[in-house]
Design the sequence.
DNA sequence: AACCAGGCGCATA
DNA sequence: TATGCGCATGGT
């Protein structure tokens, strides 16, 4: 990895296995879009982020070296050796998924945003999840750009009522968002120390929240806490498991089940969409 | 126009 | 412990 600072921001080059477009649009984050070819725009960690593809890397626009190192490098999981991980896949389906979607990495999102986003995701589809989250941010986040808003904090949301959240059209999930915000605020759920706990303890902690079961807990641990051994099983992964792995995941995924899951999830979902369109 | 969506809580046995 | 149903809303 080669990091260069110039007047436009920070350039990252020669990162094996990095496709930012894929990372941002494979069902793990919901707030970024490709505004024009090779240009990505969104908000994370309370900041607007613009990224442009370059010859052999990416330009993080208007970002200082410190911001890059402290926020965006961890966000895109750039210190993990995905080349090595991908090379170790010895299973034909994983290899297929990895080759077709080379460059997916697991984003390390802000824990509250990850928790709240995946509460919203339950029994829902991705386009509508994005819509609800967009309305959540516009309604309760802070305006930090022309059309950009931060993800609302749990401190703000813990005082809201389901009536307040009606504008989101989140349905039965509204009360879950409030319960999560209240339990994080009160400390009943110690969201910001989950990373220090054994993963089973962290799971127990998360499912204390109404509307958080095994799946949402795994997503929070994987995408918000950086636990790559967390393994969320949704309807798509259920299909994958019954169709391809009735005996369980291959051994080469040991300890990085969440990463394998992301390749398989996106691959399965994309191939399905091709068939139905 | 039905069926389904990155599930979960709750009642029932 | 294990199953099955209802849930709000809207994408396909």
Sequence:
């Amino acid at each position: 990895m080669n990091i260069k600072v110039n007047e436009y921001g920070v350039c990252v080059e020669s990162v094996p296995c990095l496709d930012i477009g894929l990372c941002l649009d494979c069902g793990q984050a919901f707030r970024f879009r490709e505004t024009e070819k090779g240009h990505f725009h969104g908000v994370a960690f309370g900041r607007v982020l613009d990224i442009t593809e370059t010859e052999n890397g990416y330009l993080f626009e208007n970002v200082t070296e410190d911001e890059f190192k402290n926020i965006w490098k961890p966000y895109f999981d750039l210190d993990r050796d995905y080349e090595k991980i991908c090379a170790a896949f010895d299973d034909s389906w994983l290899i297929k998924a990895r080759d077709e979607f080379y460059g997916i990495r697991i984003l390390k999102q802000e824990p509250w945003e990850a928790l709240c986003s995946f509460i919203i995701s339950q029994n829902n589809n991705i386009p509508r999840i994005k819509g609800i989250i967009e309305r959540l941010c516009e309604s309760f986040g802070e305006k930090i750009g022309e059309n950009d808003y931060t993800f609302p904090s749990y401190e703000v949301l813990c005082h809201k009522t389901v009536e307040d959240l009606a504008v989101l059209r989140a349905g039965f999930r509204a009360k879950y968002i409030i319960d999560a915000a209240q339990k994080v605020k009160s400390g009943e759920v110690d969201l910001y120390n989950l990373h220090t706990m054994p993963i089973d303890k962290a799971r127990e902690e998360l499912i204390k929240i109404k509307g958080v079961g095994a799946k949402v807990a795994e997503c929070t641990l994987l995408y918000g806490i950086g636990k790559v051994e967390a393994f969320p099983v949704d309807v798509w992964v259920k299909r994958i498991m019954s169709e391809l792995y009735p005996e369980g995941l291959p051994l080469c995924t040991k300890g990085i089940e969440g990463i394998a899951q992301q390749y398989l999830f996106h691959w399965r979902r994309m191939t399905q969409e091709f068939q139905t369109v």
